[in-house]
Amino acid sequence: MLHESPSGRLMSSWPLPCSVEEYPKILVELLNKIRNEKVTLEELSSYISKQKGLSDKWVVNSLRCSLLYTGLVEIKEDNTLRLTELGEEYLSSRDNRIVIQALIENIWGVREIMLLLLNRTLKVSDMYSALKKIGAPWKTQDQIGFRLRWLRAFGAVRRKGIYYELTEVGKDIARSLENFQVRMESLTPEEITKSAARLEEADHESIKRKLIEIGEIKGYYASEEYPMERFRLDVVWKRVPTGNPVKVFEVQIRGNFYEALAKLKHAWDIWNSGIFLITTEEYEPLARWLIDGSFHEIKNVIKIVNWKRINSYYKLIKELKNLEEDIGF
Fold first, then answer.
1. Which of 63, 111, 251, 322 is paired with 164 by a 20 to 30 Å CA distance?
2. What is the pLDDT of residues 78-119, one digit of tens each?
3. Distance (Å, rounded) from C-alpha 72 to C-alpha 153?
4. pTM given for the model
5. Which CATH class for the 20-199 domain?
6. What is the CATH number of domain 204-327?
């Protein structure tokens, strides 16, 4: 079970494009560049990519998390970046607690890791197992490692071999989260089991199969992994077998939302298809943020649908179909 509103904290984190020791220095450099220059996220990413010899795609994901997800930077109407009040406060004070608090408030799992480490030392695998029990959807330990890099860099956590522990600063911050700790510790085994069951329902292949069946019941020619130039679309519905798709679906439970939205935008560009992004409560804010920014052209045409509504619709349309067959309509 996720103890915070899914729209309040994002599940995805990412490292800065530098060593852990350089995090504060690089973050300050980035914030200063944004304060002093009129620059877009893409332009800033290109600048860092050339400087560090990294791919543009990797760097843009890094900066999106480091600057935007943390709430230190926002995107203006002309698509350029500007510091938020929080970003200005950090740049003026260089108080690392500001960054730690921003991570706690905006990135799911940071607060939980700090509470897990309060008065104990743990391995990454220990933290991963514990967070999985309370609803983390990650299939690898990478996201734990990303969060630990941030906490180490800004002085909340230190590493001792394969173990991690809180610093005195980290302990002070973790103790201030006492109310949340009570809610976390009060989670019963039954709630954990139910949460795990709900998590498993959000399955990419299962949702695709349901979309195929819904399309067929509604009289469309439905297919999956439909080719579109160099892409493959999760599910499409066509009115006639030889026609173009009239509805296109991308199922994005986690992973690369940028690519999913790029595919949907291209389908809309070339076929004028109805486009649908199927996702979860946790990732809907990320999808809407991307649509407000890089994919603003499709903001008024794309439908973002919670996967649970697909499940509900599937059950209803199946029941209606069975009822119609029983009555003979």
1. 63
2. 889 999 999 999 999 999 999 999 999 888 899 999 998 988
3. 17
4. 0.55
5. mainly alpha
6. 3.40.1350
